[in-house]
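Fold sample X.
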Amino acid sequence: MAIDASHNLYVADTGNATVRKISAGTVTTLAGSVGVWGLADGTGSAASFGIILGTAVDASGNVYVADPIQRTIRKITPAGVVSTLSLDSAFPAVCDPTGVAVNSDGSIVYFTDRGNNLVRQRTADGAVTIVAGDNVAGNLYVVDTGNHTIRKVDTSGTVSTLAGLAGQTGTSDGTSAAAFDFPAATAVDTDGNGLCDRQQQ
């Protein structure tokens, strides 16, 4: 999930290979075609995706999704135009991108590499590097699905557990007592409030 500055919500509809936009309670398909999987760029239903597991949005309303099946990061403009971000030759073929985050101007895209237990960043020139470094304050939030926690990486690279108890599942609310059951995605609004989604069971 991702929320833009106008409070529109973008959701990866993984089972239908589409990206949905929810605005004032109205659901539309921003990109992709229901039941059509692939790696085609294009506008709206002309584009296709593999498995979409992460969603982020920049200040201009461009949406970014991680596609681990196609091992790619895709960009979707507000008009629904889908493109595949280029990645330099150093990017490993074994990478498994899942979660994704982006800085405000879209020049740096962060993504989790599930296959290698890493967080990577992709800069505007297509260069990919390993980082331990996005909301308005520049913090990066990572869903640690296997440990049932939400992690925070601040701008200095310090990692902390924001919520959840490592290794313990549950649905409890609260601060230190909060518990998750295989969280799958997270989004942060401009006020720093977070939303968390769980895997479909």
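Fold sample Y, listed below.
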Amino acid sequence: MRALLLLCIFSMATRKVLYAQKDTVAWFTQPGVTLLNGDKYTSAAITAVTGVHYKQWYLGVGAGIDYYKVRSIPLLAELRFESKLKAAPFVYARAGYNVAWALEHQHTKPYVFWGTNSVFNNGKYAAAGLGCYVYRKDDTGVALTLGYSAKGVTELYDETIWNGTRTVTESRKLDYVFRRLDIGVSYRF
């Protein structure tokens, strides 16, 4: 996370110098907030992507905090293509690794005195969508996006069952893939 912060600061420091040279590779940073709406939940996510762009192509890496159902940290790579129109509509795709970071109340707990709390394993993250800039000056601007994303996590826990004569411990594994609609706003500098 410290490396990502340093990369953002370096990006801001070199931005003005590189923008003057239109056909060179330049740095960008784009933090954003997203509303996530799935089949059972509505939640939010915060992301920050930083990277390089050349002409209309943007390639970056980023991280965020995703609060949908099970809190997690998506570590992602993003590829974006922007048109040359004034509103600069664009398409984007993200892919990466989803690190589970569940809150205490999100764990499955045993119903009786014995058993274990659940443990979450990491999964995959993917997103794609469309967007456009509602305000744009030079190479900075405010963007609105509409997309679709999916994140995966696996929950593991032991469940103790009384079958009438003895207790049996069963290991449970639940694979979750959360699919959601994304509506976001971000600022690129």
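Sample Y note: The first helix runs from residue 2 to 19.
Also: The domain at 2-188 is CATH 2.40.160.20 (Porin).
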